[in-house]
Design goal:
Elements (H helix, E strand, L loop, with lengths): L1 E3 L5 E2 L11 E3 H17 L8 H20 L1
Antiparallel strand pairs: 1-2, 1-3
Length: 71
């Protein structure tokens, strides 16, 4: 299942996704939330070279794309 963050529409399986909206799988959304919660809880003890910082850089790009698409 994927979720259109612009409209809240959900698609299942191989349904068509238009290119004018931002689509995330529920797994991606859950992963983002989990990573953010983990970092919030461990921010002072997380080494700056931890792999999660790189992942969050990629996630920030996705969030920026989402914000740009919503404006």
């Amino acid at each position: 299942m994927i979720l259109n963050l612009n409209t809240g529409e959900r698609l299942v399986g191989e349904e068509y996704c238009d290119d004018t909206s931002v689509w995330f799988t529920l797994e991606e959304i859950n992963r983002l939330q989990k990573n953010i919660r983990w970092l919030d809880a461990n921010i002072d003890n997380t080494p700056k070279d931890h792999w999660l910082w790189d992942q969050l850089s990629e996630d920030r790009e996705k969030v920026k794309e989402l914000k740009d698409s919503l404006s």
